[in-house]
Design a protein that fits this description.
heterohexamer, A: 90 residues, B: 85 residues, mainly alpha, 2 helices, 67% helix, Tim10-like_dom_sf (chains A, C, E)
Chain lengths: 90, 85, 90, 85, 90, 85
């Protein structure tokens, strides 16, 4: 997709395009939310003898979720740099 | 918005799109929950075709705990109400 | 999504909405079918020395599928209760 | 339906939607099958870039057995013809 | 979906249908590309002490990708035969 | 194409569809990369809520290596530029 292609589009299509991008971003963040929950649940909850989380499980889930979010933001920055062809050093 | 509260075409698209995303989100959540609790609770020997008592209560608790995790994460993400509330 | 939002929609949109919901439900059940097959295949079929299932594998697949369906229905009930804010006891 | 069997707009939408779902279902099935049989049959050492004889026959049998499983499950779900038959 | 259903469709719908099929095929191949990358990365890259692939990892990735593509083509052929109800022998 | 380079309705659909697929592809790639590098780099003990130095540098290298793998595979698939360039 070249930038030129976008420029050739009439206003209504640009609008439609940005609506689509918004739509995909919401969907993306909901998906991220779902996989975060799945992962942190799997890593932190092992016992099913009660139907409420105990203190330890809750702490684990909170840290896991926070780590996942920080991780995801870091990946996002690195990913953007690589997409823009930033030079890399070892 | 037009008068008398009738939503405009753009508003209708918006409402429609949001509803669709919420539905897709719930389906995705339900599927992940189902698969995760199956792996956590159901024995892989498949000696019989029925769920036994232990498996059934494990499933109930697994769903309840999974639900709580969605709540905790939803709060952390800054809305009091998680996306699906 | 508040109930009020739906009420404000004209008839044709309500129709469109219910068509979408039907569509997603069919898609959902097809996805469920696919993950059931994947899971039961993975759990039950280990040997590839013949190209047809032996009796034991077939029994395993059938039980696994039945269990998965029962499991899925149970999860679905619990999930609906929680969505409606049912009280929980330990 | 209109006379002469020409489908109405609504029927056309319906047919179109069903075809799309069937396509998506098949793609999903194919992807899951491909990944599952890769994990079951292909050695992870990657000593060479070709599939060896053992891997190839394992793949053929894996696909055949996977297919049978879709058939068994399809029957259990109450249609003689599984969704993709 | 019976063949007859398609025949009853007007030309514009047939066109729309084939556009949809093309669209799904591109999406499918992009998904395949993504899962190939994920799988070969997971199998071949274990160490994160440098930020570039070493020679051994690179060789592993290339062989893995080639094997995955050959595998995928073989599955595709077998899958098509079964879809057409080809007879199977053991 | 119409004169003056204004794209026709069909061309616009085409451009639109391609853009959507490219977006979906990138989102899928990003999600897989995120999950894979989380599994490879982040310790599962969750002793604290911050990523430590070791985890952070592991993540950076993991992303860089993953990116190289997409490049290698993209080249093998016959385009000098992988789908996401």
């Amino acid at each position: 997709m070249e930038a030129a292609d976008f420029e050739a589009l009439p206003e209504e299509d640009k609008h439609r395009m940005s609506t689509m991008i918004d739509h995909l971003q919401v969907r993306d963040s909901l998906k991220m939310y779902n996989s975060l929950v799945e992962r942190c649940f799997c890593h932190c909850v092992e016992s099913f003898r009660r139907k409420t989380l105990d203190k330890q499980e809750e702490t684990c889930v909170k840290r896991c979720a926070e780590k996942y979010l920080k991780h995801s933001m870091r990946v996002s920055m690195r990913f953007a740099e690589l997409n823009q062809g930033a030079p890399t050093s070892d | 918005m037009a008068s008398k509260g009738a939503p405009s075409a753009a508003d209708r698209e918006q409402i429609f799109g949001m509803a669709q995303q919420e539905m897709e989100y719930r389906v995705d959540l339900f599927n992940k929950l189902t698969q995760t609790c199956f792996d956590k609770c159901v024995e892989r020997k498949y000696k019989e075709a029925d769920l036994n008592v232990g498996e059934n209560s494990c499933i109930d608790r697994c769903v309840a705990k999974y639900w709580q995790v969605t709540g905790i994460v939803g709060q952390m993400l800054g809305s009091n109400r998680p996306p699906m509330g």
